[in-house]
Design goal:
Helix 1 runs antiparallel to helix 2, helix 2 (about 45-70) runs antiparallel to helix 3 and helix 3 packs antiparallel against helix 4. About 75% of the residues lie in helices and about 0% in strands. The longest helix has 28 residues, at about 15-40. It has 4 helices and no strands.
Length: about 130
């Protein structure tokens, strides 16, 4: 059995797969915001509180993402921090789906977000190593 040394042979996604994965990442980010907004709206009886939660939950996620995980981040942080922010936002979205009573959607979203993030991370690391 052959073991692949990631340090020596980083995997770069083929062009079409790279474009697809980046587009999927954007759609997952938008979906996470929508799921958080829906959870916020369904999370309270009072209309004012519903509106507050429906705006505040996705806004907090968007600000956190924009500061630390967006392609053009405001603050450069280690990869581990970026991955933690992504896990927090995507995890919150999956929990929101679970809270809405959609467990199959929650698991599906979490799995797709995990695979997408893993592929994007490996792809970006390969590009950085090759100087692209």
């Amino acid at each position: 059995m052959r073991v692949i040394d990631v340090e020596r042979s980083p995997m770069k996604l083929p062009g079409p797969l790279h474009v697809f994965n980046e587009g999927l990442a954007f759609l997952l980010e938008l979906a996470a915001l929508a799921f958080l907004a829906r959870w916020g709206w369904d999370g309270a009886e009072n209309v004012a509180l519903r509106l507050l939660l429906a705006v505040a939950a996705p806004a907090a996620a968007a600000v956190l993402w924009g500061l630390f995980a967006a392609p053009r981040v405001r603050f450069r942080v280690p990869l581990a921090v970026v991955l933690c922010v992504k896990a927090l936002v995507f995890g919150a979205a999956a929990l929101a789906l679970l809270g809405l009573g959609w467990p199959a959607w929650a698991v599906s979203f979490a799995v797709v977000a995990l695979v997408n993030t893993a592929l994007a991370t490996v792809d970006r690391q390969a590009a950085m190593r090759r100087g692209a």
